[in-house]
Design a protein that fits this description.
This protein has 199 residues and is of the alpha+beta class. The chain has one domain (3-195): Glutaredoxin, CATH 3.40.30. It is 53% helix and 10% strand. The protein is built from ten helices and four strands. The protein has a four-stranded mixed β-sheet.
């Protein structure tokens, strides 16, 4: 049974635009997923990337065009300039980590709820009420927003260090236990081809 480590940032528009395709393909191929939210600022600084506000005007303009094209291709609602971006992704990341550890709900749905809150619903994912609502909608105890803070923070740091060590330099980033790495939601077709033994 293949396994996928999924590294992402809880405010990444590209992770949002992946929708539930990762979960669907994992179901088709009997793959398991471990969700690993990371501090992308630290990952960027260690791997040669730049935060959005430090990129050249040309790169920032291209990003906006790509977001709009991808929005149209996926059909997902997307605010190109959401009201609460950038928001601190750490509290939502801690909750995702705690929920995955606790079990009993749908972690993929939780991740998508958080991302959709930012990119489609104009909500601040750093706020407790938003995080609690995302947990509840995915079948988790909303109290994990509080009870999972310490363990979530510790694992968040570990995920970030691990991402740097294994070469996961962007969001979303998928690493299969075969050693194959895939960067970006636009590589999900390649990931599925790999799971099917075609790549």
């Amino acid at each position: 049974m293949p396994h996928i480590d999924y590294y992402f940032v809880a405010v990444s528009p590209w992770a949002y635009l992946a929708g539930n395709r990762l979960e669907e393909m994992a179901g088709r191929h009997g793959a398991t997923i471990t969700y690993k939210p990371v501090d992308m600022g630290r990952v960027f600084s260690a791997t040669g990337g730049l935060p959005l506000n430090q990129r050249s005007e040309a790169r920032q303009a291209y990003r906006l065009q790509e977001l709009e094209r991808t929005r149209k291709k996926t059909g997902l609602p997307l605010n190109i300039h959401p009201a609460h971006f950038p928001a601190n992704p750490a509290p939502a990341s801690y909750a995702i980590i705690a929920a995955q550890k606790a079990g009993g709900g749908d972690v993929g749905a939780l991740v998508q709820n958080v991302l959709r809150s930012c990119w489609a619903e104009e909500k601040n994912i750093a706020e407790d009420d938003v995080i609690r609502a995302c947990l509840t909608a995915a079948g988790f105890d909303p109290g994990l927003a509080d009870s999972g803070l310490l363990s979530g923070a510790t694992q968040y740091e570990a995920n970030t260090e691990e991402a740097i060590q294994v070469g996961a330099f962007g969001s979303p980033f998928y690493i299969v236990d075969s050693g194959q790495r895939f960067w970006g939601q636009d590589r999900l077709d390649d990931l599925e081809a790999h799971l099917a033994g075609k790549l």
